[in-house]
Amino acid sequence: MSRHVVIAGAGPAGLCAAAGALRAGAEVTLVDAAENPGGQIRAWRGFERLRDHVLGHPRCDWWPESSIWSIERVGDGAPHVHVLCGEIDAAERDRHVLRPDALVLAPGAHDRVLPFPGWELPGVSTAGAAQAFVKGEGLALGDRTLIAGSGPFLLPVAATLLEAGSRVLAVLEANPAATVARGWTRRPWELASQPGKAAELAGYAALLARHRVPCRTGRAVIEARGDGRVEEAVTARLRPDWSIVPGTEKVIAVDALCVTHGFSPRLELPVAAGCRLRAGAFVEVDGEQRTSVPAVYAAGEITGIAGAPAARTEGLLAGWAAGGGSPDAPEAVAARRRRDQARAFAARLAAAHPIGAAWPGWLRPDTIVCRCEDTAYGTLQRAAREDSAHAVKLATRAGLGPCQARICGPTVAELRSGGNPHHRPIAQPIRLGELAKPPVENPDKKESAR
């Protein structure tokens, strides 16, 4: 009897995990909250061919617009997976329970934005959201757009906006040139295994040069201003620890501001499953992408931020192993080699674009930290001096809004020096009426006990 593998997430890692599990002979249930697979960016090479292969396979069951709201640990076997099927805002969603032989977690990551005065103004967005909007709608974002933050993701965002007709004033990397250069040139011989990255970087640099878009290092947006929407961005030069160099502030007129400070892995499901974390930031996995929980595998950005190619390789390995494939198979050996090269790239990326410890110096007492609940930095500071982490959360309501701390959680935890921002008993919101209804029993949905 073939193994049944449930895969959480249909981005680059999840889609390749499905392909790997199918290649190993398993039955696959691929679950994703989106209507279509591929994650936020579906432009990677070979995506359409892989999508058609996976979704058209007779042993693959595709569950779009379906959210995993809970993971139930069951002895030494794979956890049971509780799923809500239907659009997030739908009035009536069906509740299902999947009982797989193995579970692959590939939920991906989202942009991380450090708060600064005015970041909640309309017209200020994450770089990823701006790119998704432009690609989805085909519209220019603004006539005077500034892109700022840290990391190489700033460059493809600038390219997307330029190609859509937006005027990009500048791209600002917060880390100084010396930090970026030191990170990228460390162990330079390892770059030989990533020739595509250099070509990609050169392409972005050429595009920005044609449009006369300056790229400046050691400079960040420390404030956004405007009446009803963003109208000005205040930038300043930063020291290596991201403290502001006094007297270097500049005011730039803008109508759109795109900011990202790297990515935050979506760790709600791994934490719910009981997976051990590495340095509290990423899921710990072995050479076959196994987590510390039996029959649970992890792939993609939740194991380390390294980009879509690395996520695809990890997904292929995780799916192959979860489906019962031999670790000695030639394709598994080759995939592990590519995965190890990608991990070296991830370490280089982290070294070149760290988040400086002094960034809270940008904040003022009235700076909003949790946008869902309008919790200000000063309120958080006062509560943190007097109460426990749990009491701070209840007193300030930081992290208790609609996003359930997915956006502000890591920042709030860092500012108050404690707490696990990814722990929540229910991974996705569920209505009491949906919880009260019994699960739908449908053999076609691979829900029979195994």
Task: Provide the fold topology.
Layout: E1 4-8, H1 12-23, E2 27-31, H2 47-55, E3 60-63, E4 66-72, E5 80-85, E6 94-98, E7 102-105, E8 109-111, E9 124-126, H3 127-137, E10 145-150, H4 154-163, E11 168-173, H5 177-185, H6 195-210, E12 215-217, E13 219-225, E14 232-237, E15 250-253, E16 256-261, E17 263-265, H7 268-273, E18 277-278, E19 282-283, E20 296-298, H8 308-322, H9 330-352, E21 368-370, E22 375-376, H10 377-386, H11 389-396, H12 409-415, H13 432-436
Parallel strand pairs: 1-2, 1-7, 2-3, 7-20, 9-16, 10-11, 10-16, 11-12
Antiparallel strand pairs: 4-5, 5-6, 8-17, 13-14, 14-15, 18-19, 21-22
Helix pairs in contact: 1-2, 1-8, 3-4, 4-6, 5-9, 8-9, 10-11
